[in-house]
Amino acid sequence: MIKKIVLGIALNGLALYVVTLFLTDIQYTGGVKFFIIGGLTIGILNTFVKPLMKLLSFPMMIMTIGLFSIVINAIIFWLTTKVVNGINLADVSVVVGSPWTYVIAALFFGLVNGAIHMVIRNK
């Protein structure tokens, strides 16, 4: 159980790292601590908040044939930045340049995280 949680945090942190490499509109401080806190935050939000958001937006998910999940992922990414900045650790922060960056980051994060999980599961 603990191994699975730590692996999830590490994989989310790794995917977050890849997203920050490719999207120059996302600026962060804190180095590895940022990715650990970000990975933990994304894991918690995906576990508790995302299912509720999917349930509440079910009609919209049906109407858009699932494309509304991109909006949900962008909101999760936005919430992650708010939580990371709200923790008030001395050297950990994140700034995202525009609202469209959240959407692009959510798309990219989903693709990278999915690819990482496929590689991990196949080993």
The share of residues in extended strands comes to 5-15%
- Coarse morphology: globular
What is the H/E order? HEHHHEH
Strand tally: 2
Task: State the gist of this model.
The protein is mainly α. The chain is built from 5 helices and 2 strands; from the N terminus they run αβαααβα.
Q: What is the secondary structure topology, with strand pairs?
A:
Layout: H1 2-22, E1 26-29, H2 32-56, H3 58-63, H4 68-86, E2 93-96, H5 99-122
Antiparallel strand pairs: 1-2
Helix pairs in contact: 1-2, 1-5, 2-4, 4-5
Would you give an account of this structure?
By secondary structure, this protein is mainly α. The chain has one domain (2-122). 77% of the residues lie in helices and 7% in strands. It is built from 5 helices and 2 strands, in the order H-E-H-H-H-E-H. The protein has helices at 2-22, 32-56, 58-63, 68-86, 99-122; strands spanning 26-29, 93-96. It has a two-stranded antiparallel sheet with strand order 1-2. It is globular and about 45 Å long.
Features:
mainly alpha, 2 strands, 77% helix, globular, single chain, 123 residues, 5 helices, two-stranded antiparallel sheet
